[in-house]
């Protein structure tokens, strides 16, 4: 082999090495771009994950608040039911004390009053949304007043609970 042939072969080998190096460099650049893209996507996913965790925490807190409101509303409903039942008992006691020839009518009236009050309780339970529990007694009185004023004109069977309570207080005095 002569020097010219050796130089030609070395040039050819050098050109192949340069082409291979350029291909490796291009592959490295592509991998680097893919790596950067994956890191950006990972950051976005982590950001979304943190946002979802925050939303979950907020929803859990809201759920606890709603459960507390529900418990307070149920307690209020039970107290209202108890108060109404005690008023009914007082009314029944007063009606049974009076000796009237139309006692049968009083029994029918008492049962109608009981049914009407139970309907009012059911309506109140189904119609009342989650309310601020600190104002529940004030809202209950307002709702009773509104309900009685709207129902007095439309049906003679509906009873004004505040009026009934004042009547009971008057009978007891």
Task: Please give a structural write-up.
This protein is mainly alpha-helical and 173 residues long. It has one domain. 87% of the residues lie in helices and 0% in strands. The chain contains 4 helices and no strands. It is rod-shaped and about 140 Å long. About 13% of the residues have low confidence.
Q: How many domain regions?
A: 1
Number of E strands: 0
Distance between the termini: 136 Å
Q: Structural class per helix/strand content?
A: mainly alpha
Low-confidence stretches: 130-139, 146-157
The SSE order reads: HHHH
Q: What general outline do the C-alpha atoms trace?
A: rod-shaped
Overall helicity: over 70%
Main sheet overview:
none
Mean pLDDT: 78
Strand portion: under 5%
The helix tally amounts to 4
If you compute it from the alpha carbons, what radius of gyration comes out, rounded to the nearest whole angstrom?
Answer: 42 Å
């Amino acid at each position: 082999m002569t020097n010219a042939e050796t130089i030609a072969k070395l040039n050819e080998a050098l050109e192949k090495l340069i082409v291979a190096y350029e291909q490796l460099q291009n592959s490295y650049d592509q991998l680097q771009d893919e790596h950067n893209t994956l890191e950006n996507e990972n950051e976005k996913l982590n950001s979304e994950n943190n946002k979802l965790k925050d939303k979950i925490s907020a929803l859990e807190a809201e759920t606890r608040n709603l459960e507390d409101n529900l418990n307070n509303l149920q307690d209020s409903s039970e107290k209202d039911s108890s108060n109404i039942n005690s008023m009914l008992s007082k009314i029944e006691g007063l009606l049974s004390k009076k000796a009237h020839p139309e006692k049968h009518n009083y029994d029918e009236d008492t049962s109608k009053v009981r049914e009407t009050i139970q309907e009012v309780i059911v309506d109140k339970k189904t119609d009342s949304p989650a309310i601020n529990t600190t104002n529940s007694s004030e809202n209950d009185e307002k709702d009773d007043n509104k309900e009685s004023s709207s129902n007095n004109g439309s049906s003679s069977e509906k009873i004004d609970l505040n009026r009934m309570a004042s009547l009971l207080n008057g009978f007891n005095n």
